[in-house]
Amino acid sequence: MKIAVLGVRGIPNVQGGVETHAEHLYGHLAKLGCDIEVIVRTPFVPAGLARTGAIRLRRIWSPSRPGFEALIHSLLGVLYAAVSRPDILHIHAIGPSIVAPIARLFGLRVVMTHHGPDYDRDKWGRFARFVLLSGESLGVRYSHARIAISQVIVNLIQSKYGRTSDLIPNGVVVAPIRSDAEHLAPFGLTPGRYFLQVSRLVPEKRQLDLIRAFALARPPGWQLALVGKLDGDSYSTAVKQAAEAAGVVLTGFQTGVALQQFYSHAGVFVLPSSHEGLPIAMLEALSYGLPVVASDIPANLEVGLPSDCYFPMGNVEMLASRMQDMAAKPDAPAQKQERVRAVERNYDWSRIAASTLRVYERVLSRSSSAKSS
Fold first, then answer.
1. Residue 177 is assigned to a structural domain of this protein
2. What span, in angstroms and rounded, lies between the C-alpha atoms of 94 and 26?
3. Which of 26, 110, 149, 279 is a plausible cystine mate for 143, CB 3.0–4.6 Å?
4. For all residues of the chain together, what is the average pLDDT?
């Protein structure tokens, strides 16, 4: 089965939830016998990189300007798919899904994955929100099948558009906990004594709330580490200034062994976000057995943490209180192991890939039946 993938900025090792999702999903689908080609954007993938593992990469130009990058790349990508003729065109996220009607016009079979209502993100202006809302509507209406990564999104698709979707969540690779810690040393981090957030530095991840909460809480001997790339935008500048004033550690973007060490030795993971589809970084933290403090938005609540792990989104004082409580409460080894087992049960990439393949097979089967009749 030949699968073309659209809506992904790039893989491997490109920061972002959709990118992490795609990197793992298509590696597993390739093992199941699928021929995978991911259509990636030129600013995110080096010119000489034509494949990663069994996945082929097709670099297609896109501008670097936010709000236009995804739209223009998706238009060019669907034209490429019209020529390359995959069995399935799998579009990720609602912005790129705006090209679903064009794909149908070219006779392509379209599967859409809805990763969350991106129009709710704080950073978007009026035009970008219009594109995202249009992408959601057109993607849902014109795709042959819809995948939602959370029950919240399943309900959204049903209530807004009267369409069904397959619930297939994000997954997690459960990595062994590392005892080595050389990547912590340059940042002065003490194992077991720091709060950790791993995410893009964007307003909906609420890093400024987290920094203010840490400044209020100040558990003795604890630090806060923010793992994510600093861009040149105004929000990144504000985060950098606030972090410097509060003594918060900014590590930049981290991958591989370094990121594993940051997770392995953290004391508590914190996710105060205002918007999520299904939070991969939180699932990764749980796969290391970490206790988690998270905002009470629907996508975070769906993970099913104990009630004392949540706080009202935007309530900095309550977040500070939760951080103080977590820092003061020793974590039993049995609790860590139960978190790991829960992730293994519910978010295994092999099962997720098999479920996705069944969606592809159903779409192809229906298409074949329609042609024969």
1. no
2. 19
3. 110
4. 94
Number of residues written out for the chain: 373
Q: How confident is the model at residue 372 (pLDDT cuts 50, 70, 90)?
A: low
End-to-end CA distance of the chain: 23
Is there a cis peptide before residue 12, judged by omega within 30 degrees of 0?
Answer: yes
Taking the CA atoms of residue 53, residue 95, residue 73 and residue 201 in that order, the dihedral angle to the nearest 10 degrees is -70
- Helical H segments across 247-294, by residue range: 256-265, 280-287
How far apart are alpha carbons 212 and 205 in whole angstroms? 14
Closest to 157 (Cα-Cα) out of 142, 170, 147: 147
Q: What are 177's two structure tokens?
A: 């906990």
| Contact criterion met (CB below 8 Å) for 136 and 114 | yes
Same domain, 341 and 354: no
- Note whether 84 and 217 are same-domain residues: no
Residue 180 lies in a domain: no
pLDDT digits over 190-199, tens only? 999 999 999 9
- How many domains does the structure of the chain reveal? 2
Is the backbone peptide bond immediately before 101 cis, with ω within 30 degrees of 0? no
Q: Are residues 274 and 368 in the same domain?
A: no
> Are 166 and 265 members of one domain?
no
Q: Considering just the CA atoms, what is the radius of gyration of the chain in Å?
A: 21
pLDDT at position 373 = 56
pLDDT of residue 142: 98
